[in-house]
Amino acid sequence: MQEPLLGAEGPDYDTFPEERVSPSSGERTRVSLEHSLDPNLSLTKTQASWFGSVFTLGAAAGGLSAMVLSDLLGRKLSIMFSAVPSVAGYALMAGARGLWMLLLGRTLTGFAGGLTAACIPVYVSEIAPPGVRGALGATPQLMAVFGSLSLYALGLLLPWRWLAVAGEGPVVAMILLLTFMPNSPRFLLSRGRDVEALQALAWLRGANADIRWEFQQIQDNVQRQSSRMSWAEARDPHIYRPITIALLMRFLQQLTGITPILVYLQPIFNSTAVLLPPEDDAAIVGAVRLLSVLIAAVTMDLAGRKVLLFVSATIMFAANLTLGLYVHFGPKPLTPNSTMGLESVPWGGTEQPLVTSTNYLTLVPLLATMLFIMGYAMGWGPITWLLMSEILPLRARGVASGLCVLVSWLTAFALTKSFLLVVNAFGLQVPFFFFAAICLVNLVFTGCCVPETKGRTLEQIESFFRTGRRSFLH
After folding, report:
1. Residue 90 in contact with residue 164, Cβ under 8 Å?
2. How far is Cα of residue 144 from the mean position of the Cα atoms in its chain?
3. What is the mean pLDDT of residues 48-57?
4. How far is CA 351 from each of CA 12, 262, 333, 366, rounded to the nearest angstrom?
5. How far is CA 468 from the centre of its chain?
6. Cα(171)–Cα(322) distance, rounded to whole angstroms?
7. What's the predicted TM-score (pTM) here?
8. From the CB of residue 376, how many other CB atoms can be counted at a distance below 10 Å?
9. Percent of the chain surpassing pLDDT 90
10. Residue 95: how many other CB atoms lie within 10 Å
11. Is 228 exposed, middle or buried (0-12, 13-18, 19+ CB in 10 A)?
12. Do residues 269 and 357 touch, judged by C-beta distance below 8 A?
């Protein structure tokens, strides 16, 4: 879900200097465009920064469109529809002859990403049995991380144009596989297609499964919510409470710092004088992220959502605090003015000892970042998406999920664009201390506001918000 670094403004960040440079065919598309034979694709650092940022704006627009498409076309068709802007975007980037084609391509792929980010969790939660909904709900995040690592590996072998072409492959595979999947039974029932809904549920649960009780429960819930929700009803606690919880979870998830940390991963490692090459550090962090999401998928239906959220926030707090303290008191690089640095002055205005090649203290940023990624991927990464799809009321699920994605990506865009400004003005330690404080807020928020949904049907969860009875949560 996160888009890595392309370039950004700052006194020491001169990967893209003000004069025009040429794009390099051996680098990943999202990292740089150097040594291109086409002068129309030469980017200033400001243009490169926007190339990295328009993805988040496109994703926000995709979330906005999901507010309409998810209920209009249904979850499955909305996901399939996302293939249109995705294919068009990758084709524009692969055949780009000017900056506008690159920017438009990135925006379109971002739009597709935002649309699927809103629709896939809802679709998965509506078709999954309660006992494995957590594991299945974590698979989109798992596949996203696996895809990022795969593209990272391909980027070492393929020119950036062919890397854009390779992006078409998963889109085609998604379309082919979804043609065999049924629509969500809940969506079909909301459209009065009861026979199709029964057939879809029977297909999903297997030929020998007894689906009568589950189908009746879903049908009763849909019939109670057959009419369109009015603005007056939106003020009812059983409607606005779950929506508010979902929105705040998406907002707080981004404020933990996941997007700027992933986007500026290699520059952060360069600025904190890590012992290993930054490219190796980034690959290690990606592998840790994949393993951690896999752990979350396995344990989510056993340990429960809230336990993992508590553990996740605690780990992220410790990691962000460690990074902030290391930046403020730890060693500084021998070459602070490297092209990948984030700032040119000592952090916090204090003099730190210069790092040497044998100073193993420089492993701290890598270990702390791995700890942060592990904590995020175990809880606040996949679980916030899952809970969004679980707690939102059926009548507002399409609109509210799109709104959650919109809030999430707008927050990501704001954080990414402001990160370097804060670093250059106050020092690299300040964002980490801020992220650590947000993790403490997440702990309180989880304890006070987030319900445990492990092993409960979507109808039981909705009944809890409607009646206020907590019996099913224990």
Report:
1. yes
2. 8
3. 76
4. 18, 27, 12, 22
5. 31
6. 40
7. 0.74
8. 27
9. 22
10. 12
11. exposed
12. no
